[in-house]
Design brief:
mainly alpha; Arc Repressor Mutant, subunit A; 59% helix; 3 strands
């Protein structure tokens, strides 16, 4: 970021064509990451795994309302993206433990910033929703 734009967030300062082409939006790394973390369960799973490693069933019990299938899909996507490590223990039956990778740990800081922003502005947003 240049010295003249220190008060402008990088995302706002980035050049964008107008209109933004749909294929460019689809290929955008930011949009790609937001699609992953913007689903219903990913942030909660990442936050829990940021505290400690979990076995699958333990994690499933820790998240009320998530189906086994959805937890499996969420963990698979996070593992595929390199954010979560899946460790299989050679037991009978096999048990699996999930933890954040070093890359996954780097996601905790921006998620914390977003959470702080949401808490700070929640009442304003709720009031705006009530007025419309």
């Amino acid at each position: 970021m240049s010295g003249t734009h220190t008060d402008v967030p990088l995302v706002v300062a980035a050049p964008l064509p107008t209109p933004v082409p749909a294929d460019e939006h689809a290929r955008c790394p930011v949009s790609d990451v937001l699609r992953r973390v913007g689903d219903k369960w990913t942030v909660l799973v990442v936050v829990l795994l940021g505290r400690r490693a979990y076995r699958f069933n333990e994690l499933h019990r820790a998240i009320e309302g998530i189906s086994q299938r959805m937890l499996t899909r969420t963990l698979h996507g996070l593992t595929e993206d390199g954010l979560v490590h899946r460790k299989v223990f050679p037991t009978v039956p096999p048990s699996v433990e999930y933890s954040l990778t070093p890359l996954g740990r780097t996601l905790l800081e921006p998620l914390s910033a977003l959470a702080a922003w949401a808490m700070e502005h929640h009442e304003e947003i709720a009031a705006s929703r009530r007025s419309t």
